C-alpha cells in the first residue's frame, strides 16, 4: 500500500464516523486555538510595549535631582556629560508643568478627551534626546535658550486640536499667560493608546523662571550612544551625583527605560510559558483521546488487519497506515483549531489591546506541525499494537 492510498483510507475513516471523529478532534481544536490566542495576545502586547519604548527613545537615561536648598545643578550636569563624549550624545532638561494652552478662542482646558497638555522645559537637544522629529518649521536652538526667546515647538495632536488644518508656524499661542510663537511641529510618534507623546509642547528651559517661578531644573534626559554605553553612563552619573548630593542635601535617581524593556521581555516570556503550559494540558488530553480512539479503531479493524497480513501485507505498511490516520485526525483538528484561533485572536486583540491582531506565520505553522506530531506520538502505541497482531489471532476476531 502506498502513501497516497494510506491518506485516502485515513480520510475515508474520518468521514465514515463524522461525529466520533469530531469529538476526537475537539480536544486538539480547543488546545490549538487556546495556544494560538494566548500566545498571540502576549506577542501583541509585547510588540505594543516595544513600539512604545522605541517611540520614547532607546538608550535614554532619566535623571531626577532635587536639592533642599534650591540649588540648580543644570550647568554642572551639562559640563559633566560633555566630558563623557565617548558615552553620551547629549543632555537636556525635561521638567514639565501643566496648564491651559490657548490659541484665539480655543483652549486645552476645553478638551474633554485629552485635558491639559504637558509643557516641557527643554534645550536645543530635547528632540534628539527624546526621539522627536520635525514635521514642519524649525526646532529649538541654543540662541533661543540663551536669549530667552518666547518660542515653542508643539506635538502633532496639540497642533491638530488648536489649529486643525491651519498652518501654525508663526502663530502666537498663550502658555502660562505668556505669548509664545510657534516655530515648529513634531511628527506624530505615538499610537492612539500613547496619544500623550504627541499632545505636548516644548519651550526653552530658560523660560522656567517666568513660567514656573523657579530656575531650578529637577528632571533631565541623557541620551547615550548605545545600550552598552547606557549602563556605563548610568554608573558614571550615579557616582557623580553621589559626590554632589548627600542624603542631608537632597536626593536623586538615575534609571533607563532599557531596564523596563528587558524586564517586560522577561515577564512576557514567562507569561507565554505559563499560558502555553495551561493550553498544553488541553492538547495532552486531546492526545489521550486520539490514542483511545485509535485503540478502538484497531479493535474494529482486527479482521481487516488479519486479512492484510495473511495475503502478505508487511508490518511496516500497517504501522504507517495507522500513524497516518492518527496524524490526519490531529492535523485536521489542528487546522480547525488554527481557524478558531485566528477568529479568537481578532476578537481578543480588539477587546484587550484595541488593535487588529493576527497570529504570526511561524506560530501558525508551528501549531499545525505540533498537532500532527502530537497525533503521531499518541498514535504510535495503537499502530505498533495493530502491526504486531498475529494473522491467525486477528482472523478469528469477531
Automatic annotation (TrEMBL):
Q: What is its main location?
A: membrane
Q: Which domain of life is it from?
A: Bacteria
Q: Where is the MacB-like periplasmic core domain?
A: 21-238
- Describe the location of the ABC3 transporter permease C-terminal domain by residue ranges: 278-391
Q: Which chain regions cross the lipid bilayer?
A: 21-42, 273-298, 318-343, 363-381
Q: What is this protein called?
A: Putative ABC transport system permease protein
Molecular function in Gene Ontology: transmembrane transporter activity
- Asked whether the UniProt record includes Transmembrane among its keywords, one would answer yes
Q: Which UniProt keywords apply?
A: Cell membrane, Membrane, Transmembrane, Transmembrane helix
Question: Which taxonomic lineage does the organism of this UniProt entry have?
Answer: Bacteria, Bacillati, Bacillota, Clostridia, Eubacteriales
> Could you tell me where this protein is found in the cell?
Cell membrane
Any single GO CC term annotated in Swiss-Prot or TrEMBL for this entry? plasma membrane
**Membrane recorded as keyword:** yes
Task: Give the record's family classification.
Answer: Belongs to the ABC-4 integral membrane protein family.
Membrane topology value = Multi-pass membrane protein
